[in-house]
Amino acid sequence: MPLNPIVSAVTDRVIERSRLGRARYLDLLTRERDQWIGRPMLGCANLAHAYAGTEEDRPAMKAGDGMNIGIVTAFNDMLSAHAVYYRYPEQMKVWAREIGATAQVAGGVPAMCDGVTQGYAGMELSLFSRDTIALSTAIALSHGTFEGALLLGICDKIVPGLLMGALRFGHLPMLLVPGGPMPSGLPNKAKAAVRERYASGEASREELLDSEIAAYHTQGTCTFFGTANTNQMMMEVMGLHVPNAAFVNPGTKLRQELTRAAVHRVAELGWRGENYRPIGHCVDERAIVNAAVGLLATGGSTNHLLHLPAIARAAGIVIDWEDLDRLSRAVPLIARVYPNGAADVNGFEAAGGMAFVIRELLASGHLHGDILTAGSDSFADAAAKPTLDGDTLAWRDPGPSGDDTILRTPADPFAPDGGMRILAGNIGRACIKVSAVEQDRWIVEAPAAVFSDQAEVLAAFQAGQLDRDVVVVVRFQGPRANGMPELHKLTPPLGVLQNKGYRVALVTDGRMSGASGKVPAAIHVSPEALPGIDGAGGAIALIRDGDLIRVDAVNGTLEALVDPAEWAARTPAAAPPAASGFGRELFGMFRGLSDEAERGASAVLAGADL
User: Is 282 annotated as ligand-binding?
Assistant: First the structure.
């Protein structure tokens, strides 16, 4: 099947816009490989320090005949998704020895959980934990003692941060290694219902806690299709996993064999062999467009409208929201996974999972089939599901959809487009995800209720002040203001208002997360309210209580319906003072240097463009 013409045109646009930056990046990779401070070049004392921590592998390391694989791990046992990594490094060392290679833990990266910090001060560190992870990954790989790497990470900021750091060492072959989702617990719809009952005062805190624990009940990734599982989907369509490793449950024999295969695979990709596949060449413009197509076709997390531009930029590639908007109108929605449907990712996997998605999108011409994959020799391999033939890994065709309420073909999609829209108007540019929003809610026109903190919104809701048609505006939530926290705690009360029959929408320069759902939300408003180093702040700071706001996902507009002369004469609202405590003051530099959401809302990349 020839490539879809819009996918082709967007790819050409990305290639042309990235021409200079990508050329400079590839020149960097060539220089880094040719001048690499690798083991043969290191002094004896340097090598002795690197080998001192291991006795069993020291002779093989000293001989230097096999690859030494660096493991960058996000293990901690506070995060269910990353607790599964506890034994991985020791197992990987054994599997590396099977093929004459060695492996060492190069370093750890932080892995915080937005689910724990939602609505509290720690959430203001969340987005910049991605930059911290990128820096930590670079430090881990900076020793020059590795010929390849395995990146152990799953959740929201961890995978983008690992890639941002790893791509600066893009001459090395690397794979990402997932851990899999936890088995299904309390259904997501039942969990959401208890949350809304609690927000309405109809459920006790004990009932709410019991409900949440029944949903998040063991090790593995959370089972809704939020940012963590969207990360895993994107690594599949970019060819950076062993094919279809993403959604196999932890603790299974199949999961173990997929991880073993990742160790063996990365050892095949070194520059001493004939199959050299450095990660910086794998992550090219076509792979980035594949990630965008996968995001849209599966109804993935809005957070990737920040993360995908940042990942691309680390590889010298420029993709913007206009590209996503154009692709969204050409890419059919073929998956419904909570919050865009009733099923969780285990149901998605059982229905055919990523093998079905990739097979169908390749057949319909929506994915680039000629990308250079790290996880297998050909991207076509990703159109098959892994299984065990005895103790041996094998792959099989996924067959037809096992449940057409979860997975459909592009010829019979849930919606003809991907459900992401870019809104623009006198308030600025914003994103909206409408794949879970009823179509009669795609346009909301109502008076504004303006806040500078989500706690203020919750207080107004509890006081009954929002029981009306309303556009809730929450500003000073951008990266420069407070680190751009997710405003996920607003979902239940806004859902309650909508259930009462009111016309409700959210407008914010903050994030709403991969769990955003049925309430229309214009998010990532740019420019954000707080002025940057250029002295300019966004027009969202001009909105006043009672202004008529129009959020229009049909025509792609975001407007304050205010007389233009009055609008131009307004003075921006004063920003609240910068918060301190919970370590937030340590991230002042990140906030001050952060660029706009559309470029990735990153501080470290602002100074890393080649």
Answer: no
